[in-house]
Design brief:
5-stranded mixed beta sheet; alpha/beta; 5-stranded parallel beta sheet; 12 helices; about 300 residues; 12 strands
């Protein structure tokens, strides 16, 4: 029998600290407060595609997602299985549809901040934003992956995903270096029409792929908090040493319009046949687009360019 109460409480606390904790249980800070879970969630709803992607990477299929059909068109990987409920638009999901699915976790971002209290009445809500002022998208996406890994008792898988991405970047960089293709800067663009492009800036998600591949971003100016700027083609004309990588999709008729444009055909990358094209890669996602972009960009550069878009 302990005669010293302080010693008794100290030993008790030490003993309890040595007991295994319930997997997935804990309390986490997020952008709108704190979140406490007693066990790993089984019914999760995601209100943006970055969160949807992250859940699927962890091997968890959400019961409901926002803009379900659009995910399969724009994000593509990892694939969304059949049977997932659509709970409305990302900017205005249906609270009724969310409640009917009886989730035990909702994952959202600051765009839904005004509805955070309403969401918390339905289920514990985790708020994290990869895209906001002064944010580093890949770092925040990495944080989301690791935190959800903790909540869902899939920490080891989360770490393995990150290690795989780093290994992919290293492998693709070696391919480019061996071929001597890391010398010229790269401009990553989406064509909005035959005169304007969305060009991806150093503060965007894509920059992590360029850095990992040992490539320089031709566009050195900071973009909006989504990581891009909308500019006319004349804005990229001064970057004469750059290669232009066009991210699909492109508008019907764009190739013909550019071929008949004296300005386009004047551009040095066009004259050098250093216009490259890759499939759609979602620029506002989680960590996975970095792997997808790295492989596609490397393959495209190795295959060789042309003087126009497809």
């Amino acid at each position: 029998m302990f005669t010293n109460p302080r010693l008794f409480h100290l030993i008790t606390a030490l003993f309890l600290s040595m007991l295994p904790t319930l997997a997935g249980a804990g309390t986490w800070q997020h952008e709108q407060g704190t979140l406490t879970l007693d066990e790993p969630p089984k019914r999760v709803i995601t209100l943006n595609w970055a969160a949807t992607e992250t859940l699927l990477l962890l091997g968890v299929t959400p019961v409901g997602v926002a803009d379900r059909d659009g995910y399969s068109v724009w994000v593509k990987e990892p694939a969304l299985p059949d049977g997932v409920h659509d709970i409305g638009a990302r900017v205005a999901p249906s609270l009724e549809a969310i409640a009917e699915l009886k989730p035990d976790l909702i994952v959202t971002s600051s765009e839904m901040a005004p509805a955070a209290q309403l969401l918390e009445r339905i289920a514990p809500t985790y708020v994290i934003s990869a895209y906001r002022e002064e944010s580093q998208p890949f770092d925040k996406a990495r944080e989301m992956l690791l935190t959800l890994g903790e909540m869902l008792d899939r920490e080891e898988r989360a770490r393995a995903i990150l290690a795989d991405i780093e290994q992919t970047l290293d492998t693709q960089r070696q391919r480019l270096e061996k071929a001597g293709l890391t010398d010229r800067p790269v401009a990553l663009v989406n064509f909005l029409d035959d005169r304007h492009v969305r060009i991806y800036a150093p503060n965007g998600l894509y920059q992590r792929a360029l850095d990992g591949l040992g490539l320089t971003n031709a566009w050195s100016r900071k973009g909006n908090f989504w990581g891009f700027s909308v500019v006319g083609l004349e804005a990229i004309a001064p970057y004469q040493d750059s290669r232009v990588v066009v991210i699909s999709p492109t508008l019907p008729g764009l190739s013909d319009n550019l071929a008949n444009s004296p300005f386009w055909t004047y551009l040095p990358p066009v004259k050098r046949e250093q216009i490259y094209q890759i499939d759609a890669t979602w620029p506002f996602g989680g960590v996975f687009p970095i792997k997808r972009l790295a492989k596609q960009l490397t393959d495209s550069l190795l295959e060789g360019g042309s003087d126009n878009v497809r």
